[in-house]
Amino acid sequence: MIKPYYQDDYITELHGHVISVLQEMSSESIHCIVTSPPYWGLRDYGLEPQIWDAEPGCTHQWGDELSITAKVSHGQGNSTLTGGHESWGNRNGGNQGQFCQLCGAWRGSLGLEPNPELYISHIVQIWRELKRVLRKDGVCFLNLGDSYAGSGCGTNDYRTEKSISLSKPALYDGPRPQNKVPTGLKPKDLCMIPARVALALQADGWWLRSDIIWNKPNPMPESATDRPTNSHEHVFLLTKSGTSQFWTHPRKRGTRKAPLPDYVWIHKRTKLIVNYQPVSDRILRKFWIRRNLWIGHDYFYDADAVREGSIVRRPTTFRGGNTYEYTPGKSKGRESVYQEEMAETGRNLRNVWKADNIMARLRKDISNDQKQYVISELLKRGLI
To answer: Which pLDDT value is given to residue 94?
Structure first.
């Protein structure tokens, strides 16, 4: 059993090769997975290289390291993090690993693969183990950003690239590891890595239930002048089940065994509810709706707990019993004919989620140096 890197009453942190660590975990023991793996071709985090796709028993003879010149930012003023221009560096870019000359295994860090196909293959391997440890009624949220072919950079990984003061160098000035153009793509092409990963996971048996857009109102500046600035990432909601795993009832305890139907009939006009069939089958559908009180669920998702507030417009009645709808440009006296109120139930959660930049959350009356210090300390502690 792998030894926890850190553990307390609430948290257990495990370090190691992701597949090796997952293989130590019990099957169907996890309710929810929320993860954001390294984006392809974006950052070399300086981690210990891991061996992927190895044949059992192979002694491994590693070939030459795959490394390329990377596009980097130099010092203050030129930093792409502050809206400056990108420039070509003279140092090596990210190490794209080595291939075994005997079995074809690859040694490197996830995200630094020399092509998208190998990266996606490794993601699928990881998600096979995640599927094993995830419960049948569990859910998985996968956050991924994209990158451009031949650009040497991606679309602002939130874990390392942060807004900085113009008077200071970048917090992170490390190499961007990818500037080769993958086979099938052209220079400046958007690689569509999130979409490719989602399709690969679908083909591997996952249910893709939602493509959630993580909207960033204050995105990182980009030096590109021939396309819009990227201001969103994808969060995929994935499940391992497409059939009901448990059933709930408004007046009874839930069950994991398929229950017998418990029907009620609702009158379409009066909304009267009865627990017996009120009329013959011949005219039933014309006036009544049959509803089973047992509701089956493929996975746990409490829609009521995450409902959004919504505003409804209710008409105001004037003397004589008449109601009027205000028309812009006409009588201003009728502007308040309709009153806006918060709906009691709210609407179903939408799939565009807004995330404010941390700089916008800091107090307005502190200096840029103080803001920069707070961000650097949060980065050191892995909190942002």
So the answer is: 53
